[in-house]
Amino acid sequence: MHKLDESLLSPLPPFSRLSPAEIREILDEATPGRYPEGTAVFGEGLPAERFFLLLDGFIRVVRTTREGDQVIALHIPPGQLFGIAPALGRDTYPATAVAASESIALGWPIRLWFEFAKYDGFSTETYRTVGARLGEIHARVTELATQAVEQRVASALLRMANQSGRKTEAGIEIVFPITRSDIADMTGTTVHTVSRLLSAWERAGIVASARRRVVVTAPHRLVVLSGAAK
């Protein structure tokens, strides 16, 4: 890891208070990994042996219900830690992490988690991240309990567009591949229902989708559909 410059980590919240020498120590312990789209970085329920920092790409967090159904809980963008089971007081992974697009991450043995906690700001920022993710999951549960399907699908598309959107001539493109099945898993509905909604929204000029790509062409109208507009 000597070729990886310290400046790569210095802007990131868990490492922003550290000196170049401290970041160098952390990088020297890291192992880089490249994960093709669809690759599981780790699986739900398996022993937590490593934790990771996502450098590029997106990670899809997938939970399995008691009935055996898979639910997409959230997406993790570049620059964030994941697989941080110790922050939750666990020794197993609470969910499966899948590369939503080709991804590059640094990994460390889980034993180093407690050593890294000595660094200024590392623990504070890590637990802030955990709180934000738990809040996002709670919001998803609330949506499932209180919102109609159309609102849930609109909200899911808006979240992904806000988190990973890239402005194009057509609108805001969700940068990682997303299928109708993925959207169904995120919103607690069926692929048929998602297809019906997206087809209707395409005809109305609200979204455009093709080849696992979704572009939000009329963001404000999607906000209205989500129920977020006041």
Overall domain count = 2
| Level-2 CATH architecture of the largest domain | Sandwich
Assembly state here? single chain
Overall morphology: globular
Q: Mind describing the biggest β-sheet?
A: 4 strands, antiparallel
Explain what the structure shows:
36% of the residues lie in helices and 24% in strands. With 230 residues, the chain is α+β, with helices and mostly antiparallel strands. It folds into 2 domains: 138 residues, Sandwich (Jelly Rolls); 78 residues, Orthogonal Bundle (Arc Repressor Mutant, subunit A), CATH 1.10.10.10. The strands form 3 sheets. The chain has a 4-stranded antiparallel beta sheet with strand order 1-8-3-6, with no helix packed on it. A 4-stranded antiparallel beta sheet has the order 2-7-4-5. The chain has a 4-stranded antiparallel beta sheet with strand order 9-10-12-11. A hairpin with a 5-residue loop joins strand 4 and strand 5.
Give a quick summary of the entry:
With 230 residues, this protein is of the alpha+beta class. Helix content is 36%, strand content 24%. The protein is built from 7 helices and 12 strands.
